[in-house]
Amino acid sequence: MEDESKQKKFNSRFIYISIGFVLATLISWHFTYNTDHFLTTVKISSIGLFAWSVWEYNLLKYNHVYLKLLALSLLLALTGYYFLLEEDASTWLRVTKMSLCFLILFRVLRYFYILIYNREPKLEKTKGRMADRMFSFIVIAGTALVTMAI
User: Fold this and answer.
1) I need a surface site. Which of 2, 51, 72, 89 has the fewest CB within 10 A?
2) String of b and e for 42-59 (b: at least 16 CB within 10 Å)?
3) Which of 7-11, 22-26, 125-129, 146-150 has the lowest mean pLDDT?
């Protein structure tokens, strides 16, 4: 019952945040394109989507939540790829795929975590079980490394 409530809240939150995110990103990119501030707006929107994906980590176990965030992340990554083709700046591509890398890495590592520990992982910073802290570190550090490497 509690999970259904959380999912409903996410669905309404997703509608508002995703529409706001897409509109704000498009508007800011439109006004800053071909200026020195364009890269800054790309980074802000990319980090914003990454932060939102991390913030919703406890709901990523539900396919519809995961797929919605994955679709937004894929849209941003494809846009970054378009910019890479148009301009030669690989930083754009790397930053725009950060949330996509997080979501894919989270899903794969979550599968193995559940297989080994028979429970859902938690993103922990300093307290909690060692396995949860290691999971958190691997997901976040792995996201940074994969984002820079690919």
Assistant:
1) 2
2) beebbebbbebbbebbeb
3) 125-129
How far, in Å, CA of 4 to CA of 32, rounded? 41
Rounded (10°) angle between helices 38-55 and 98-117: 20
pLDDT (tens digit, 9 = 90+) per residue, 30-74? Answer: 887 777 777 778 788 888 999 999 998 888 988 998 999 999 999
Structure tokens at 131: 């396995």
Entry pTM: 0.86
Q: Which of 106, 130, 107, 131 is nearest to 118 (CA)?
A: 131
* Range 144-148 contact pairs with CB under 8 angstroms and sequence separation of 24 or more: 146/101, 146/105, 147/94, 147/95, 147/97, 147/98, 147/101, 148/94
Q: What is each CA distance from 111 to 20, 57, 90, 92, in whole angstroms?
A: 32, 14, 31, 30
Angle at 149 between CA 99 and CA 71, to 5 degrees: 25
